[in-house]
Amino acid sequence: MKENLLAYKDGVLKLIRLALEEDIGSGDLTTSGIMRGEEKGVAKALAKSETVIAGIDVFGQTFLSIDPEIRFTAQVEDGARVRQGDVVARLAGRLGSILMAERVALNLLQRMCGIATLTHQLVEAVKGSDVKIIHTRKTAPGLRILDTYAVRVAGGYSHRSGLFDGALIKENHIAAAGGILKAVAGVRRRIPITVKIEVEVEDLRQLQEALAAGADVIMLDNMSIETMKEAVKLVAGRVPLEASGNVTLANIREIAATGVNFISSGALTHSVKAADISLLVEYREEDEGSAAG
């Protein structure tokens, strides 16, 4: 069963509202100069390239947040793969409302679809292995709920939602604590027993320290393929291993073949290329008859 993003409705509505307030401010000077306010019409959202859909309900909710009377009809579900020219959604109602919400709605949808498309490509690249593709915390501020959902809907998995629901000891934590043993011991004393501790390591010496410290998960940070293979042999299945750093479509299959359990990619969310989707007004309501003819 697909995850329902609007199950997080309060958080989603809040970020939509903030985005609309940022864009519209005291009013849409262009639309208010053209529209009297009651002109109605129909518009469609069109995929301009192949993409994986994520955030179609967020797209619709953005228009509804401006005008609850807009009729929004999704033509596809999240997770669907669409081709160039496919219509992904239709809108009907006040054209002024549609025009005011257009840019924010597209920004959110295009970003989420871009994340989902890249995630799908990485997941397909390791198909047949047991490796799971996971996101990082390198998300757009305020949009993490959308960014991480887009990863999951395309077949990826969540790492942690934030600092509050997972302990990940990184390079600067280790330096601040005075070593891996001290860092792990300090965190272990203060977290619930159900929370796992992950430690980031840069070489095999640190890997052995993390094992000795009792790390539950170990991240292999920016290691070469050969070093990762050695790390997998050294650990011998005692704890799960995550490979991170410089992950690309070109090398992800080779990384998966080392035997790691997870591959994380910050690029999924921090430098995603937005999907190419357009919103086109098809006609004003009074033009429907002539358009049909």
CATH class of the largest domain: Alpha Beta
Mean pLDDT: 94
Give the N-to-C terminal Cα separation: 43 Å
| The CATH fourth-level homologous superfamily of the largest domain | Aldolase class I
Strand order of the biggest β-sheet: 6-11-10-9-8-7
Unreliable sequence segments: 288-293
What's the structural domain tally? 2
Radius of gyration (Å)? 23 Å
Shape: elongated
Structure in words:
This protein folds into two domains: 5-122 and 273-292, Quinolinate phosphoribosyl transferase, N-terminal domain (Aldehyde Oxidoreductase, domain 3, Alpha-Beta Complex), CATH 3.90.1170.20; 124-270, TIM Barrel, CATH 3.20.20. The protein has a six-stranded parallel sheet. The protein has a four-stranded antiparallel sheet with strand order 3-5-1-12, covered by helices on one side. Helix 4 (95-125) packs across helix 5 (144-153) and helix 6 (171-177) crosses helix 7. The chain has helices at residues 9-24, 29-34, 56-66, 95-125, 144-153, 171-177, 180-190, 204-213, 225-235, 252-256, 267-270, 288-292; strands at 40-47, 51-52, 71-74, 81-82, 87-94, 132-134, 167-169, 197-201, 217-221, 241-244, 262-264, 277-284. The longest helix is centred in the middle third of the chain and has 31 residues, at 95-125. The chain has 293 residues and is of the alpha/beta class.
